[in-house]
UniProtKB/TrEMBL annotation:
Gene3D superfamilies: 3.10.450.50. It comes from Agromyces luteolus. It comes from the Bacteria. Residues 39-132 form the YchJ-like middle NTF2-like domain. SUPFAM superfamilies: NTF2-like. This is YchJ-like middle NTF2-like domain-containing protein. Coiled coil: none annotated. Pfam families: YchJ_M-like.
Amino acid sequence: MEPERAVARPTDDARCRCGSGSTYGECCGPLLAGRPAPTAVQLMRSRYTAFVVGDTAYLLATWHPSTRPERLDLDPEVRWRSLEIVRTERGGPLDRDGVVEFAARYAHGAERGVQRETSRFLREDRWRYLDAVD
């Protein structure tokens, strides 16, 4: 497996990189430390933050086993800039499935872009990312 990209995690009192408006310690920090996400959108936000800091272990651990790749290599040159949650369907604490549509802005050298995706999530023992439908 490729070594993880060395990016400093935010401090607990810094604004969370997922754009929720909360601090990292109140938002994605506890999830990246192992606490299960209570909703599909919170899992989506924490997975975005994991991409920001290069936490491939978290990304793989929160991927549903039926679709999870054996390994994940992140491009160390990609810098994730912002996340916008476009819409959600279901995905609450009592639901078994959910959908989160998002737009994630990034920079790759001089290139700027937006990754748009509609992601599906399943909750069995905990919420996990299943796949993208777009």
